[in-house]
Structure formats: C-alpha cells, structure tokens
TrEMBL record:
Its cofactor is Mg(2+). It is an enzyme of class 3 (hydrolase). Keywords: Antiviral defense, Endonuclease, Hydrolase, Magnesium, Metal-binding, Nuclease. GO terms for molecular function: hydrolase activity; metal ion binding; RNA endonuclease activity. This is CRISPR-associated endoribonuclease Cas2. Homodimer, forms a heterotetramer with a Cas1 homodimer. CRISPR (clustered regularly interspaced short palindromic repeat), is an adaptive immune system that provides protection against mobile genetic elements (viruses, transposable elements and conjugative plasmids). CRISPR clusters contain sequences complementary to antecedent mobile elements and target invading nucleic acids. CRISPR clusters are transcribed and processed into CRISPR RNA (crRNA). Functions as a ssRNA-specific endoribonuclease. Involved in the integration of spacer DNA into the CRISPR cassette. Belongs to the CRISPR-associated endoribonuclease Cas2 protein family. Its EC number is 3.1.-.-. It holds the Pfam family CRISPR_Cas2. It comes from Floccifex porci. Mg(2+) binds at D13.
Amino acid sequence: MTYDFMRLVLFFDLPVKTKEDRRNYARFRKYLIQNGYLMMQYSVYCKIFANRDAAIKHINILHKNIPSKGQIRIMVVTEKQYSKIEIILGGKSKQEEIVSSESFIKI
C-alpha cells in the first residue's frame, strides 16, 4: 500500500481584544498543537495526512472545534505541492525540518 501524503494548511486570524477573546485564541492554538499541527509561522499551522480522505475526515472534526469569532481558512495540498513552497526570508522551523512525509513508515 502506498500513501499519497497530503498537507492541510490552516490560516487563522482571531480577535484578541477582550480577555475572553484571548482565552479562545489560546484554547484554539492549544487544540491545534495537541492534535499534531506544526506552526509554520504566526497563525499559520500545518498537519500531514496519509491521504486526502484522512484530511477531509479531519476537517469535519476541526469544524466542531473552532472559535465563534474570527477567520479560519484551510487549504489541502499534496506533499509534492507543499515541498515546492519557496521560502524568501527566514527558513524552515525546527519542527518543519523534522516532520515530513519521510518521517512516516511506508508499507
């Protein structure tokens, strides 16, 4: 069995004006980290999946755990497309260096 690895890239912009807003922001960010997302840069997180079906299934779960205010966008791309990201300034985070489709056991 081969895997067609997919990346889910999640972009979010949540309000942080009130104490409740900041709490919701922190809760959502913590949810992402606890569920295997890696921070690419502030408010941009990604997660790798074995195939498109797994990514779509996760999106349905994600809908149940989003805050009520703000903006959240997702984009699902193949690992090949993701690997073509051009970094113009800075570099890959330590997490991005460690976690890739090569990190998974292929059966």
